[in-house]
Specification:
- By secondary structure, the chain is of the alpha/beta class.
- It has helices at 16-27, 42-55, 74-77, 94-101, 110-125, 134-144, 189-198, 233-242, 257-260, 264-271, 282-285, 303-317, and strands at 3-8, 30-35, 63-66, 85-89, 128-131, 151-153, 175-180, 205-210, 225-228, 245-249, 276-279, 295-298.
- It has a six-stranded parallel sheet with strand order 2-1-3-4-5-6, sandwiched between helices. A six-stranded parallel sheet has the order 9-8-7-10-11-12, sandwiched between helices.
- Strand 1 (3-8), helix 1 and strand 2 form a beta-alpha-beta unit.
């Protein structure tokens, strides 16, 4: 008889990390029921999850798997999961993300302390902890007291239904360098912009920068740089296919989280078999090395080094 797992998430059910974990559970011969929502509103999704949990017969399940943001579920519903094995995907620390990464709250503020409490409480209540890199796991152990014996590293995956190798005719005979992102601080978009500025007079190199840069950073005005605020995933895959080189990062050297995580775009570039530049840090080294074809590293926080690496790779291409 198959074990029954209850999968709970406050992120969209079709979010890639959710589908990755649901498919993994099913591959382990689990029968999986899901509590989640497809709503575009986070508050509506959270309300839906809480409402469904209130009436859920948890005793029917042998295992509870809480996906994205278990801090918003486990500390408040642990009473309902008594005597069940509880697995959490501790994909992000709310304390680290909101205090040090995005700097929404101060470290010693009441909200900062509460966020740290939620992280610690969630980890203490979980039987098993999923993290996205070993470096992230080390941080959770040092900062929140997580046990290494309870941790398992599950790396992200690209959606290969959308991101796969393909031939795509380029728009021009220049060397195309592509970067995309949600323009979060740890990504180091300012480093990418500064490297594009350094190379702006090189007519043989063209940059395509995809993401909501305007409003967060000052654009470098040059006809060798194209800005695109948003693309669908299918359009993004086409744009990546046209690139000669992709920038993965992370490039910010001031935010510690940037050294502990592998950028999601790296998995996409690799799935499409595109050459890419990664930030030199321990997390990226967990999966990638210069011995791999098309893998390059550069010092984080150094736009001059990034510009030199782009020129070097272009030279290798000729």
């Amino acid at each position: 008889m198959k074990k029954k797992t209850l999968f709970i998430t406050t992120k969209n059910l079709d979010y890639l990390r959710n589908t990755q974990e649901i498919n993994l559970l099913k591959s382990k011969d689990r029968e999986v029921d899901m509590i989640g929502s497809f709503s575009g509103s986070y508050l509506k999704r959270l309300f839906t999850v809480y409402r469904k949990l209130l009436f859920c017969r948890v005793k029917d399940y042998s295992e509870i798997f809480i996906g994205f943001a278990p801090q918003l579920v486990l500390p408040f519903w642990a009473w309902k999961f008594r005597k069940k094995s509880v697995v959490v995907d501790f994909f992000i620390s709310m304390y680290d993300t909101l205090v040090f990464d995005r700097k929404k709250f101060r470290q010693g503020s009441l909200i900062g302390k509460f966020l740290k409490y939620l992280d610690r409480k969630t980890i203490s209540l979980a039987d098993w902890i999923i993290c996205d890199t070993k470096e992230h796991g080390k941080y959770f152990a040092e900062e929140f007291g997580a046990s290494f014996q309870k941790m398992y590293t599950l790396y992200l995956e690209a959606d290969t239904c959308i991101y796969y190798p393909r031939d795509k005719k380029k728009n021009g005979d220049f060397f195309e360098v592509l970067y995309f992102g949600s323009i979060l601080p740890l990504q180091g978009v300012d480093i990418v912009l500064k490297s594009a500025q350094i190379l702006r007079k090189n007519r043989e190199i063209h940059f395509t920068l995809i993401g909501p840069i305007e409003g967060s950073y000052k654009k470098v005005e040059s006809d060798t740089i194209t800005y695109i605020s948003w693309l669908s995933q299918e359009q993004l895959a086409d744009a990546i296919a046209q690139a000669d080189l992709c920038l993965a990062g992370h490039f910010n050297k001031e935010i510690a989280k940037a050294r502990r995580t592998i950028p999601g775009k790296a998995y996409i570039y690799r799935a499409m078999e595109k050459p890419m530049i990664l930030g030199e840090n321990p997390a990226n080294r967990e999966l990638y090395s210069e011995e791999m074809d098309g893998i390059y590293f550069v010092e984080m926080g150094n736009p001059q080094a990034l510009a030199r690496k782009i020129l070097e790779i272009k030279g290798e291409d000729e």
